[in-house]
Amino acid sequence: MRSFASDNNSGVHPRVMDAIIKANDNHAVGYGDDPWTEAAAGKLQEVFGKEASPFFVFNGTGANSVALQAVTRPFNSILCAETAHINVDECGAPARMTGCAIVTIPTTDGKLTPELIRPRLTNFGVCHHSQPKAVYISQVSELGTVYTIEEVRAIADLLHAYGMYLHMDGARLANACAYLNCSMRQVTVDAGVDILSFGGTKNGMMMGEAVVSFRPEVTENLRFYRKQSAQLASKLRYLSAQFVPYLENDLWLENAKKANSSAAKLADVLRRYPEIRFTQKIESNQLFFTIPAEALRKLRDNYFFYMWNEAINEARLVTSWDTSDEDIAAFEHSLKEIFG
Length: 340
Fold this sequence. Notes:
The protein is of the alpha/beta class. It folds into two domains: about 15-250, Aspartate Aminotransferase, domain 2, CATH 3.40.640.10; about 250-340, Aspartate Aminotransferase, domain 1 (Alpha-Beta Complex), CATH 3.90.1150.10. Helix content is about 40%, strand content about 15%. The chain has 15 helices and eleven strands. The chain has helices at about 15-25, 35-50, 60-70, 85-90, 95-100, 115, 150-160, 175-180, 215-220, 220-230, 235-240, 245, 250-270, 295-300, 325-340, and strands spanning about 55, 75-80, 100-105, 130-140, 165-170, 195-200, 210-215, 275-280, 285-290, 305-310, 315-320. The protein has a seven-stranded mixed beta sheet with strand order 1-7-6-5-4-2-3, sandwiched between helices. The two termini are about 25 Å apart.
């Protein structure tokens, strides 16, 4: 089955799969005291700097929950876009595990700005109100848009002036860097991000993420939050081993460029039909668009993909590192049959 439903549906890159198989070599000490985890941590420090402290976890929801616990206390609040993954797609896990209030901010493109955040920075020191302590942003945003380095830095500067932290969900960080033509360090720690959920599952890895702290006071208790959150794998080598080939020779960037390029090709196909209208800028491997109801029904007979807003027939297509020209040609053929 080939689809444009999600980059979570794609397979594992052969180099990553090979690393997992090679990690299955004899016995190794559990819980991360193994050479694969040590090598993976070293690779992450090569990418993000020696100040980076990585903690490997099972999945994205776990990474976000652990990261946000590390920068808050239960009487704090976490600010995020109304469309944020922690608000919409994680079944309340970050709120439950942090004990914090999640304060949502409406946006038109999924991105926060200092101007949108600043009015929510109130009631500091007032015991009747949750105290703002962290802002969550996702790179790429849930609407496929990308924060520039300057936009990230502006948010970080604002938060730091208030003694707050910036958490970035980097599930598609590679796609953002491919679009911006920058390094991962430039748009994270160098731009003022305090803690990062770094994922590769959507970009050629099998499973797992890394919570990467850039602040010593945040790092201090992360190992305990990870354990309490049931995110410490006993056979951790099978998670961490993937990060070595993923970060070597810029495989992460190669895969992301391929996914972004495929999205651009698919967008060119959709543009040929005036009945289809894009609802967001195309800056990554995600396409958001509206399509007439009857055409949508026929398209869904042939393809599995997710609706974003049923009320306006807004759908989302996502390309992956392994999307082929044949996949796009087959989709184009379906559209030709539908629209004539």
